[in-house]
Amino acid sequence: MLLTPIFNNLFIKFTGQHPQDFRFKQGNVPLSQLHEVVFGFALYLTVVFSIQHIMKKHNPIRLKWFNFLHNCILCVGSAILVTLFMEIIIPMIYHHGFYYSICNPAARDPASGIEILYYINYLFKWYEFMDTVYLALKKKKLQFLHVYHHAFTMILCYVELDGGAASSWFVICLNIFVHVIMYYYYARTSIIKKPVWWKKHLTTFQISQFILDLFVINFASYNYFVNKYNINLPVYGQCYSKNNRTALVSWFLISSYLVLFIDFFIKTYKVKGKKAAAIKKDGAKKTN
After folding, report:
1. Residue 253 belongs to what domain range?
2. Per-residue DSSP letters for 72-121?
């Protein structure tokens, strides 16, 4: 382990508590209660659309270096967080197998130090609301996909944190890993306007992430529900979760993300690509 001992020492120094002693319960830590989540969701939408309305009468605000710093924080922070997760998950898979890591309740044992990582990831989603605030202040178009994804991912991470499903790490770690690349891209483009050749592949990676997420969610949810309700269907084993809500909300939101990102990919890279090719072809005809 490379980062875990450093993280543990820093956490103890600043909180007086060992990360393995952290327990998430509604009301015992900030932003842990459902009404706070609902309020944050509503506040995010209200602030973002209010800024967008106010900015109609003003020039865009230049936020080049603030935006760069913001994206660097999220890029580096995500890299550290996914590494901390992997330092727990990889040994677990090595010793017990992948099925154990997504289904056994011991995979969510707070004594492993994983509970605090889920909570930090959840807090990251609140900070990521600033992505949209920066766009609104710069008078950039707020796409439905962007606002929907940011608003509901905070809720998704809360549900996964509160629900205690063993498989949650898979969805979260893939998301964090994608964010390392994504926020590097945003940091780079905030100061260097030259486009990167792999931008299209970033969207492809995001779509692949959701497909993999759904495989794991469907497997874990199927085994969870069949066992819980004694349904006469074959099962691989038992998968743990504190409640039904985690499986249902995760499945619905990840499925909706997949549909929206595929739609974005088609409109951005397929339709626009065909239009650009048609314009180029038409221009060539006129010059002949």
Report:
1. 21-287
2. HHHHHHHHHHHHHHHHHHHHHHHHH-HHHHHH-GGGG-GGGTHHHHHHHH
